[in-house]
Design brief:
Layout lengths: L1 H4 L7 E3 L7 H15 L4 E3 L2 E2 L12 E3 L18 H4 L6 E6 L21 H12 L6 H24 L4 E6 L28 H7 L3 E6 L4 E3 L3 E10 L5 E4 L2 E5 L5 E6 L3 E3 L2 E12 L7 E8 L6 E9 L9 H4 E4 L4 H8 L3 E5 L31 E6 L20 H4 L5 E2 L11 E5 L7 E2 L1 E6 L2 E6 L11 H15 L11 H9 L60
Parallel strand pairs: 1-2, 3-4, 4-5, 5-6, 8-16, 17-18, 18-24
Antiparallel strand pairs: 7-9, 9-14, 10-13, 11-12, 11-15, 15-16, 19-21, 20-22, 23-24
Length: 562
Amino acid sequence: MERYFGNHASYCMLTSGNEPSGGVQYMTNFVRFWKERDPRRVYCGASVGGSWPWQIGNQYHVRAGVRGLDWGRKPESNSDWSRQIDTLSIPFVTHEMGQWCVFPDFKEIEKYTGVMKARNFELFQEDLADQHMGDQAEQFLMASGKLQALCYKHEIEKSMRTAGYAGFQLLCLNDYSGQGSAIVGVTNAFWDPKDYITPEAWHRFCSETVPLLRTSGFVYTNADTFTGEAEMYHFGAAPIADAVLHWRLTDSYGKTLTEGVFDKVTIPIGNCFKIGGINIPLADLPAPARYNVEIWLPGTEVINDWDIWVYPAQVPAIEKADEEIYFCNEIDAKAEEVLKKGGKVFLHAAGRIVYGEDVKQQMTPVFWNTSWFKMRAPHTTGILVQQNHPAFRDFPTEYYSDIHWWELVQNAQCMLLSDFPEDFRPLVQPIDTWFVNRRLGLIFEARVGEGRIIVTSADLQRNLDSRPVARQMLYSLTRYMLSDDFKPAGSVTIENIKDLYTKQGTYVNTYTKSSPDELRSPATQGARPARPQGGMQDFPQGFPGMFRPGAQGGQPQAAPAR
């Protein structure tokens, strides 16, 4: 490599490899050897995860631990990684940032025309069809892809906001076919862009010059004032002299509602360069609605933007809601009676679900893949929303989980709908890991006998004074139930709904050290592990080596031949 590429302009950094074996002494010797042999570049022992020890003699570190999204709390863009790296005396580069998963793109299968075949994708596709969701594959791809792109944007921008940060590396821009199938790329294995994000959109937040915005959150009420601080990340060839950046607020149709111009500055090479503040009173803006804040440098490709949501500080009282709708937390005797008489029931099941309780949902999607990491949470890759359904007439949303859904999705229970009719589709559908493809629901409507019901496992009850998204969702669903549009197409039995509170499925250990799990033969499956406490939901029909619901004596049943 040194002989043929030693003078190439891009050859300026070198490590011994990615997460290598050999120990600290080997990596220390590697750095020492190359520093003496060719001091024109800088050297690091290895690019490693957080469990590797710090390497002596490094001229820069490439290490995990300073990455990820802290979306266990409300998403914001004020935070950075300064505290995690402020004790280091040499540059720090983040190891394998991202690894956010997206649902497989089955259109990719036909691209494998040689000796290599996409058998993994074929199995995933077949299993999705077995679970009666084959027609939703493209929707799952697009909805999960939008969330993946959002996560990459926010994590990359967080690194760019960090003073002294030397940079980051993604594991790859394309998918990784090994280790159980890591669908983490914004391009496929052939480096073809996926349909949910364009190179131009990626370039906005991942290039040598990027406008950034620090703000305390992305969800507001019309009693608030939006405040943000603009700054620049710039590592171009030279400073940008006499730069005059602009900002504007647009509505969901792209109409400019207000705009401004920052003072003229010379932008130096570096990051965390302050540009100026943005203050927008929200009282006169229609709510609920999505808006967009955009910062750009005219005459260049330098531009970036962020969506914000504005909700009413108070929602109007809904007359006759309690008279026409029975609100409850379980299917009690009164709920059954209301449904038998053709009435309406709003069932708030959050925190009470058993059939589906083991599906762990967070705002962020699967990391790397659930097979390789022993079904480590989270298990979902976003949600699919019936955005044009009249139930969301008073709740602006896209078909995917944009950042305002955090309030409803983060740690929310999923309902397992495997016993519902095959064509049943919920209003809000969590997208399961592609290894298992459970049919899930977060909010659904249905006919039950002569009655009609809406069921939610998202929390629409607690602390609504401080949760404008949940408050607005409850308002929108209630208004919908009182309208003439409340005509659910799907029918379920009262037992289907009761089962969500009581039914327990069977458990399967999908992990093996011998081969990628989705390609294992049933004969290689291990014994069933001890059953964890709590309800375990059914795994899909036809999944290799699965334990079927209703299996006698805890014995595994053979999967059908693929």
